[in-house]
Amino acid sequence: MSSVSGGRFDAAWLPVEAFRAVGVRRVGVRGEGGVVESVRREVREVCGWFGGREVGGGEAELVLEVGEVGLGDEEFLFEFDGERAGVRASGGVGLLYGFFHVVRLGEGAFEGPVRSELHSPALPLRMVDHWDNVAVHPVMGQVERGYAGGSVFWADGEARGDFGRVRAYARLLASCGINAVAVNNVNVHAVEARLLTERIGEVAQIAGVLREYGIRTHLSVTFAAPIVLGGLTTADPLDADVREWWAGAVRGVYEAIPDFGGFVVKADSEGQPGPFAYGRSHADGANMLAAALAPYGGTVHWRAFVYDHRQDWRDRTTDRARAAYDHFAPLDGEFAEGAVLQVKHGPMDFQVREPVSPVLGALPRTRFAVEVQATQEYTGQQRHACWLGPMWSEVLTFRPHGEQGPSVGELASELVAVSNVGDDPFWTGHPLAQANLYTFGRLAWQPSADPLDVLDEWLRLTFGDGDLGGLRTLLAGSWAAYEKYTAPLGVGFMVQPGHHYGPSVDGYEYSPWGTYHFADRDGVGVDRSVATGTGYAGQYGPPWASVYESVESCPDELLLFFHHVPYGHVLKSGKTVIQHIYDTHFEGVEEAEEARRVWAGLKGVVDAERFARGAERFEEQVRSAREWRDQVNSYFFRKSGVPDERGRVIY
Ligand code: GCW
Q: Which residues form the Glycosyl hydrolase family 67 C-terminal domain (predicted)?
């Protein structure tokens, strides 16, 4: 644990030992400027730990050099000539990424064949969005859907004074390639609205620290800002006074933060204000902000999470899953260059299993960002170990137009994660949830990467090369295990309303939120076919529309998302739906128990504080998994009357 004025915190995937290969060597750093100084600081520090030193001239074993190499800002060349290793970049950010590349390679950077490799990020923007409030919200707490304590940025109603911790955070983010941060919640409350104007100085302080690591700062703003901050009577995006007000506000922001990244906007969604109130489209809204940001090169991230959250559960014609596509597909081609449509990876809301959103691939003339949720709102809230690498990778490698077409990762301009970090000493509550943040950054750099390779990287950096028992297997299978003991076959939700932790099968069944499973005595699932259901399946192009349309071709894991089937329906696995529900729920709990056992075996192998924190979380995971198993199994047994083939205990 490191200590700064703001408290103690874990080194996460950058413990001292991870720097040994660099720290024992003679290292030359050539170049000047802000981010180069961060590299120099790193080199001095790690050499201090291991007895290497910073050198000039020809004696270096590792040369980190900024020069005229004709690369993009974030690119770097890694070279090994048989004796010396080197990183060359056009500027400080590329150099920093190259430095962390060498750290990841460890001794491997200084051996093996002679080579010269160009490294470039596949996606130019790799952002984490914090749902942090400045003030503590009466219902949501300080961090909305935060499971790791308070905010890393804000404390006691203002920007934190302890920038040591923000700096350590920036360093962690940069080390896995993240280059943008939105510092406040997309639900913009009264206090936070003012960050845009009179409190921009606090944002500038944070931006100053993030900048040292090549990270640009973004701000969530309220669409109603001209009214709530500017005293205007309207926020109509086509009104001249409104446009002028925004132009002035943006000018003020860039005076304070010259490299400001731009805005994130949640409009006409879950009660947030938006252009619909003025009869304007979301393109009108986004383009107004894009126009205000354009002179400075800023971007507006406009979220596509727009749906009716006051639905009547009796109404079977409205389907929340359809909403984003219905709202945004007709607007393709209407968004300005400086607008990026930020789309949740699935059509609903970060469930453990959803199909890939049909919006991804449906708007060829619109820049879009894929939004994933590192904060584990619906995947165990950082009390359960649930490594999301394979889920995100499935999304990024999905090909919306079939095998011959491009993948989501190739079509997207950006990848965004809702942050899982707070002021907790382990950053993420569950120490193993750090893997999600790391994996996000690395997949944003290279969406086609094998997530298991990323997991290996994270394990090696975090824990070193020692024997970790079954930890890799535990994490690799943790998403699948979580899926087994929670909502079955893609149907989603079944969580307790409000906080969303733990089971409540009918918790949202008769609610206005549009999240239903329609279980009755005969069957379960949502008919989203074109032929007999909501028509959602028809939002996909070929081949997926027809794959999802029919019960026969729909993949098992999404069956109840797309179809309502009888309990006796036989899956491709050969099991009936009801037996699948029983079996997976028993298996899921066994896997949670096995995970707890694996962690117990790491006593004395991982450091004591980390071990204790993990042990406490695995206790809770097992307790909660059993609760899920018993509630889900009992519910479906009571509805269906079908006994478990294997006669296990169901209540
Ligand atoms: O998943 C839901 C969350 C809300 C969140 C919303 C969103 C920030 O329950 O807490 O609000 O998504 O993504 O806007």
A: 428-648
